[in-house]
């Protein structure tokens, strides 16, 4: 049996364990939240190191990305260093390959995203390739990194302009504690509307679900969302707010769409190659092989 475990800085209330049969293998997937505690996550990773097939980091990236350039994120680097023997991933390989392909698939199957549509990209640094794919599809981006991570009411409307600002500030910002940049623990379960106008400007809202949820207005009828890490409760949350279509980068597995870090961990476990030989371009064919396709759900 293959065992993959995601150690997340998110709420432990979102923990889940499922067992799947994939390509003739039994795969046990576990998600363990630490309610925002970096110390607890580090202890868990050290305890599981060498005991499971693949470890995944949830709620934190190892790097932030601007174009082809990577900026080491302090807390992500700390957690990755805690693992000595087991492959450890953060989902960046899935974000850079499977998620851009999702945009192409949506256009072919459903006719959107369309040229000229406004897309609120809640964090381009977290999903640079998805932002590029949406811009390449002709969408007009509203880039919300400063808004959602730093509470600065300054959205960007150009990837080029945002990239310049990011390159100037990331050497400092990447050294901040992750809790200063991203909702952790119980903050992932609460929402309070703050940036209504930015949400309302968009036809599509894309990116990390916890950023999306954190400030979502009570009513957003007819909007579409492209995200991941969605539970049954999250779907009901979105339905109540009038969201029309929910797109996730993996299918609904026993009531849940898992995050990119778990998808990447499963792919690594099934590839049966030394971790040093596994490259991101291998993930999309593996997803197709196990018949995991993006899920498109009509909520309203």
Q: What are the SSEs and their pairings?
A:
Blueprint: E1 2-8, E2 16-22, E3 25-33, H1 38-48, E4 54-58, E5 63-66, E6 69-72, H2 74-81, E7 88-89, H3 92-110, E8 118-121, H4 128-136, E9 140-143, H5 145-150, H6 159-173, H7 196-201, E10 204-206, H8 209-214, E11 224-227, H9 232-240, E12 245-248, H10 260-271, H11 283-289, E13 295-298
Parallel strand pairs: 1-3, 1-4, 4-7, 8-9, 8-10, 10-11, 11-12
Antiparallel strand pairs: 2-3, 5-6, 12-13
Protein model, in words:
This protein has 300 residues and is an alpha/beta fold. It has two domains: 2-90 and 259-292, Rossmann fold (3-Layer(aba) Sandwich), CATH 3.40.50; 94-248, 3-Layer(aba) Sandwich (Rossmann fold), CATH 3.40.50. The chain is 36% helix and 20% strand. It has helices spanning 38-48, 74-81, 92-110, 128-136, 145-150, 159-173, 196-201, 209-214, 232-240, 260-271, 283-289, and strands at residues 2-8, 16-22, 25-33, 54-58, 63-66, 69-72, 88-89, 118-121, 140-143, 204-206, 224-227, 245-248, 295-298. Strands 9-8-10-11-12-13 form a six-stranded mixed beta sheet. The chain has a five-stranded mixed beta sheet with strand order 2-3-1-4-7, with helices on both faces. Helix 9 (232-240) links the parallel strand 11 and strand 12 (245-248). Helix 3 packs parallel to helix 4 (128-136) and helix 3 crosses helix 10. The longest helix has 19 residues, at 92-110. The protein is globular. It starts with a strand and ends with a strand.
């Amino acid at each position: 049996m293959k065992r993959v475990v995601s150690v997340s800085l998110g709420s432990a209330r979102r923990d889940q364990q499922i067992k799947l049969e994939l390509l003739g293998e039994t795969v046990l997937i576990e998600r363990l939240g630490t309610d925002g505690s970096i110390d607890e996550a580090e202890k868990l990773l050290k305890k599981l190191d060498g005991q499971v097939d693949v470890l995944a980091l949830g709620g934190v990236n190892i790097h932030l990305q601007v174009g082809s350039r990577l900026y080491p994120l302090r807390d992500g680097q700390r957690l990755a260093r805690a693992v000595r023997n087991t492959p450890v991933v953060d989902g960046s390989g899935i974000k850079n390959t499977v998620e851009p392909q999702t945009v192409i698939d949506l256009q072919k199957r459903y006719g959107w995203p369309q040229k000229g549509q406004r897309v609120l990209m809640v964090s381009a640094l977290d999903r640079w390739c998805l932002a590029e794919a949406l811009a390449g599809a002709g969408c007009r981006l509203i880039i919300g990194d400063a808004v959602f991570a730093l509470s600065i009411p300054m959205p960007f409307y150009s990837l080029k302009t945002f990239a310049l600002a990011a390159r100037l500030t990331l050497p400092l910002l990447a050294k901040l504690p992750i809790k200063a940049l991203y909702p952790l623990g119980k903050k992932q379960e609460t929402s309070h509307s703050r940036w209504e106008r930015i949400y309302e400007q968009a036809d599509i809202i894309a990116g990390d679900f916890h950023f999306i949820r954190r400030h979502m207005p009570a009513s957003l009828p007819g909007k579409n969302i492209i995200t991941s890490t969605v539970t049954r409760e999250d779907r009901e949350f979105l339905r109540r707010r009038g969201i029309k279509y929910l797109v996730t980068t993996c299918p609904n597995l026993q009531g849940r769409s898992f995050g990119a870090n778990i998808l990447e961990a499963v792919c690594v476990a099934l590839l049966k190659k030394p971790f040093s030989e596994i490259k991101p371009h291998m993930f999309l064919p593996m997803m197709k092989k196990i018949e995991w396709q993006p899920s498109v759900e009509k909520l309203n």
